[in-house]
Structure formats: C-alpha cells, structure tokens
C-alpha cells in the first residue's frame, strides 16, 4: 500500500527552492537547476517558434532559448520592466532561459512544509506540480522544472535550440 505523502517526500526532498512570481502566484523550483539569474534583455526572435519562445540569446558562446512562462501559462500580456528577470536553467544536457515577473528569494523547505498538490484545475498542468510549499502566510507552487521543460508541449524548445 502506498501513501501519497510518502511518495511526495520521496520525489520532493526537503531542500532549497528559488521562489519567483508569475502574475499573482508564487512558484518554486529546485535551486540546483538554476545556473544564474539575469536581467531581461530582448532575445533574437526565431522564425516559426511558438509565441512563448521569445527567441534566443548568446550566453558566453552558448545559444540559449528564452521561454516566457507568463505566455506559456496564459497569464495575460507580459510587461517587461526592471524587475523582469531570466532564470538560466540547466535541464538535462541543455541550457534554457525562463522569463518570470520577479525573483524573490531562496527558501529552504522541510518535508513537513511540502504538501501534496490538490487535484484541481490549474494554470500549470498538475503533472508538473510536485507540491505546495507552505511558509507562514506564503504558499509556493513547487514545479518539477525538468518535467515541465521536457514535456511534449515544450518539445519545441529542443527544436528551436537545435535550429539556432
């Protein structure tokens, strides 16, 4: 007999998560996937790329596709201001940039602070949500960034990166 809570803790160990904001929600991703955080700069557009792929940037000789998560999650028209940042991620053997509204902090979560994700409709496909991190009044939606970035609907990133 398997319990959801023990399975959740097996896949989401206590650890450090980078907290960032998209629209009104706060999300968290495993800090170990984050290579760096950069201010937003307009990427070079790639023909026939989906809307959420803003283009590519040259990061010290590596061509990095830039994905705007606000467009991907249909969170309205994104605006780019001094708080807009690009989180550079190491996903498998590739580097991907993720545009978010702002980054707040790095948060350490204990297993007790991670709750299973509810089975409800969400902006993010719940397959990519590994749980909810609770910190006093804050709640972080914890995303399995590997699974999200390698999912079928994001597969165009791989093609875009190869085309560049």
Care to describe what's here?
- This protein has 164 residues and is α+β, with helices and mostly antiparallel strands.
- β10 (129-135) and β11 (138-143) form a beta hairpin.
- The protein contains 4 helices and 11 strands; from the N terminus they run αβββββαββββββαα.
- It has one domain (4-163): OB fold (Dihydrolipoamide Acetyltransferase, E2P).
- It has a 6-stranded mixed beta sheet.
Topology of this structure?
Layout: H1 4-11, E1 15-22, E2 25-30, E3 34-39, E4 53-59, E5 62-68, H2 69-72, E6 85-91, E7 94-100, E8 102-109, E9 114-115, E10 129-135, E11 138-143, H3 145-149, H4 156-163
Parallel strand pairs: 2-11, 5-7
Antiparallel strand pairs: 1-2, 1-8, 3-6, 4-5, 6-7, 9-10, 10-11
Key structural traits:
disordered C terminus, 11 strands, 6-stranded mixed sheet, 164 residues, 5-stranded mixed sheet, alpha+beta, disordered N terminus, OB fold (Dihydrolipoamide Acetyltransferase, E2P), single chain
The Cα radius of gyration reads: 16 Å
In terms of DSSP E residues, the strand content is 35-45%
Ends distance: 48 Å
The pLDDT mean sits at 83
Summarize this structure briefly.
By secondary structure, this protein is α+β, with helices and mostly antiparallel strands. The protein has helices at 4-11, 69-72, 145-149, 156-163, and strands spanning 15-22, 25-30, 34-39, 53-59, 62-68, 85-91, 94-100, 102-109, 114-115, 129-135, 138-143.
């Amino acid at each position: 007999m398997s319990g959801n809570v023990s399975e959740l803790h097996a896949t989401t160990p206590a650890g450090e998560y980078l907290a960032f904001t998209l629209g009104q929600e706060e999300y968290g991703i495993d800090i170990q996937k984050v290579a760096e955080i950069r201010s937003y700069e307009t990427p070079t557009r790639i023909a026939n790329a989906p809307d959420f792929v803003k283009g590519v940037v040259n990061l010290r000789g590596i061509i990095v596709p830039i994905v705007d998560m606000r467009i991907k999650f249909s969170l309205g028209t994104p605006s780019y201001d001094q708080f807009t940042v690009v989180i550079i991620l190491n996903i498998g053997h590739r580097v991907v940039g993720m545009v978010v509204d702002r980054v707040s902090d790095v948060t350490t979560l204990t297993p007790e602070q991670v709750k299973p994700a509810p089975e409800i409709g969400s902006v993010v496909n719940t397959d990519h949500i590994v749980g909810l991190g609770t910190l006093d009044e804050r709640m972080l939606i914890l995303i399995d960034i590997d699974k999200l970035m390698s999912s079928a609907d994001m597969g165009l990133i791989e093609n875009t990166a190869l085309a560049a």
